[in-house]
Design goal:
Blueprint (H helix, E strand, L loop, with lengths): L1 H17 L3 H12 L5 H8 L5 H37 L18 H15 L3 E2 L5 E3 H4 L25 E3 L5 H9 L4 E10 L11 E11 L4 H16 L5 E8 L2 E10 L16 E10 L1 H6 L8 E8 H9 L12 H4 L3
Parallel strand pairs: 1-4
Antiparallel strand pairs: 2-3, 4-5, 5-9, 6-7, 7-8, 8-9
Helix pairs in contact: 1-2, 1-4, 2-4, 5-10
Length: about 350
């Protein structure tokens, strides 16, 4: 048995020396470690036939042979693979260093920057506003009555410090901007908002909104419609139509929900738009006279409009993302597409 072990080692050395490519090395590996006809498994199978007094020495010799063959074969396999790689891609030390992978803009950032560029061209100023807010700026000054459902603890994150809260919309910027500047003024605000919502395909407790408003003399709902049509066509496509439906918001009167023709079927009807050809995109309206009075602006002299919509939803529509959670999972396979 010891002679057979020694002969197997000699045969392996000869076969390994002759194998100089991955295919030949793989054949050597099968010849000596294959389950059906491998030389090493066959020797271990014969170990039970060895007399008891010789079994210890024979077993030690067989284990040493197995370990030597395995380590030697692995070393040569790695050496051949390295030589092949170097041969295929020769190293040129005169080439400039490879640049590290560059980051990608997030889909929400892309939409926000496009939106800001559109309204900057219209003469709007940018004001992100604070995310930690008081009840006055978030609710009361915007004409929310004390018993309005949005004040409920299930909707708003209240902080145990000086009656502060996390803003539930970017409409708080309306009040702060109108207090800070005298009309006429045009302001766009983009930023994070917070609500006590469950995480679903279309809802998140932290999301992004954009709020725009304009105050000047002689402003009417036709100015609002023209502004929204320009914005929608610039952001989503020049061939899209827009419609306005009566609605209700505490801080605008009259108020309207705004739909645009479906970006996927171009108004023909599909599963995404429930075969209506329309997609709801934002809420809007003429600024309520009481909101103007709350900030010291005379509604008999000045009027204005306001609109707001979700940046997350806009990104989902623009890039055909079906699940809002995709925007916040930071999966590089997704982000590298933008």
């Amino acid at each position: 048995m010891l002679d057979d072990i020694a002969k197997t080692g000699t045969d392996f050395d000869r076969d390994l020396a002759a194998a100089n490519d991955p295919a030949a090395l793989d054949q050597v590996r099968v010849r000596y470690f294959g389950r059906k006809a491998g030389a090493i498994p066959a020797l271990f199978e014969r170990l039970k036939e060895v007399p008891k007094e010789e079994k210890r020495s024979v077993g030690d010799a067989l284990n040493k042979l197995r370990d030597r063959i395995k380590s030697t074969l692995d070393e040569k396999t790695a050496q051949v693979a390295s030589q092949k790689q170097v041969g295929q891609r020769p190293l040129d030390v005169t080439l400039p260093a490879r640049l590290p992978p560059l980051g990608h803009l997030h889909p929400i950032t892309i939409v926000r920057r496009e939106l800001e560029e559109i309204f900057l061209e219209m003469g709007y100023s940018l004001d992100p506003g604070p995310e930690v807010e008081t009840d006055w700026y978030n609710f009361e000054a915007l004409n929310f009555t004390p018993d309005h459902p949005a004040r409920d603890m299930q909707d708003t994150f209240f902080l145990d410090v000086d009656q502060l809260l996390l803003r539930t919309h970017t409409s708080n910027v309306q009040i702060r901007s109108m207090e800070r500047w005298k009309p006429p003024l045009r302001v766009l605000s983009c930023g994070r908002v917070y609500r006590r919502d469950e995480i679903t395909m279309r809802k998140s407790p932290v999301f992004h909104q954009a709020e725009g408003f304009l105050v000047d003399r002689g402003i009417h709902i036709g100015h609002l419609r023209a502004t929204l049509e320009q914005f929608i066509k610039r952001l989503f496509g020049a061939d899209l139509a827009m419609r306005m439906r009566p609605s209700y918001f505490p801080f605008t009167e009259p108020s309207a929900e705004v739909d645009m023709s479906c970006v996927f079927c171009r108004g023909k009807g599909c599963n995404t738009c429930s075969f209506t050809g329309w997609m709801e995109i934002l809420g809007s309206g003429m600024i309520h006279p009481q909101v103007l009075r709350n900030v010291g602006i005379d509604p008999d002299e000045w009027s204005g409009f306001a609109f707001g919509f979700g940046l997350d939803r806009a990104a989902m529509i623009k890039f055909d993302i079906p699940n809002i959670r995709t925007l916040f999972e930071n999966d590089l396979r997704v982000l590298q597409q933008f």
